[in-house]
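## retry 2 of 3
previous attempt timed out at serialization; input unchanged, resubmitting
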Amino acid sequence: MSATIKDVAKAAGVSVATVSRVLNNNANVSEGTALLVNNTIKELGYSPNFLGRNLRKCETNVILAIIPSAEHTFYSEILRGMQVKAAELGYDILISTSNSNETTEQHLLNMLYNRTVDAVILLGTRLSAETLSDLNNKYCVTLCCERVENADLVTVTVDDCAAAFDAVTCLIKKGHRNIGMISTQGNALSSKDREKGYRDALEYNGIEIREDYIYRGSYDYRDGGYAVEQFMKLDKKPTAIFAVSDMLAAGAVNKAIKLGLNVGSEFSIIGFDNLFLCEIVRPSISTIEQSCYLIGSIAVEKTIANLATPHKYSGRFIIDHKLILRQSTGD
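## retry succeeded, writing output
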């Protein structure tokens, strides 16, 4: 049979509590006693049951990250930022997918209720502000990428409204006044905030807001193409487009080229996220860059900080954005 902590204590001539203090690097143990206990542990081949110890302390050092979909490469850099920061702080990240389904999301949250994980980070959610606030009051929950109005928990995002305002203002400065927008349906506040930024930029520059210049679909690449087709049927066609994601912008670029439009000169397109594809497609795509890696890193850092205090912080952290200009706007 393998050695137990009691065996170590007996062989070293100390109490079980002293062995436990040594294992936990407790400062209240003399250097000589710590050396004696550690040598005894090696001699007996004792292996501490850290899992059992963590469960008794109701700690797992694991954070669950729930993503809405595994199909979008947008999440990969956020998750990488999470994993690197978590490893630095002695935690692991467990990743699962909700498929944007509230029932699935609630099922995954059982891992929080039964203490299989210490905390949850949601990269988008179907849950209400009231539900999220209540969850964070009882456990530890963080939002990143997407915000939920009036939810009382840490949220890490860019300022979507300001970023969209900058993108549309750029198009206006390039001489465009007929600017379309490709957005999404549903309740995602990021898309709504980006639409507000689009409208604010037009209004600020004295440009009429036309509802037929706004297309709402899904985040699917093909919807970017459908939007361009719809815009080209209008009597007064847009000469530029702001899309709420790079995938939509890429779909728009592809369809515009098929329709014979000269993207980058007579027709400009700006996306959002700065995915890798923006650099490798031709023409390359202008976009708003949000530091996905930093979003993930800060979300983990603030989550772990909240785990360590009974007085959880519940504010919003705004990550800087950057306008990246490429061939799709003639740059």
